């Protein structure tokens, strides 16, 4: 196998298992950033899309933090249940 084939294979299968909400939001942000508005209306729509992405990232971070807290609580509950048995 050549180096180019390995590199192409890596890019095509790049972290397929590691995709999460932040990966998708980053991709959308990059996509929106490349759009060149042709009118004032398009420029406003792009600005609105960027604002929605910022809010989406903020909400995703909050949900991620809540998920981590809930996982920790579940672990504690499972440990206490195992100790009681």
What descriptors fit this protein?
single chain, 85 residues, mainly alpha, 3 helices
**Beta-strand percentage range:** under 5%
What structural category characterises the helix and strand content? mainly alpha
Domains, number: 1
Radius of gyration: 21 Å
How many strands appear in the DSSP assignment? 0
The helix content is over 70%
- Cα-to-Cα separation, first versus last residue: 56 Å
- Average of pLDDT: 88
Unreliably modeled segments? none
Q: Secondary-structure element order, as H and E? A: HHH
The helix count comes to 3
Largest sheet descriptor:
none
Shape, per Cα inertia axes: flat
Explain this structure to me?
By secondary structure, this protein is an all-alpha fold. It has one domain (3-84). Helices cover 81% and strands 0% of the residues. The chain is flat, with a radius of gyration of 21 Å.
Concise summary:
With 85 residues, the chain is mainly α. The protein has helices spanning 3-12, 21-34, 40-84.
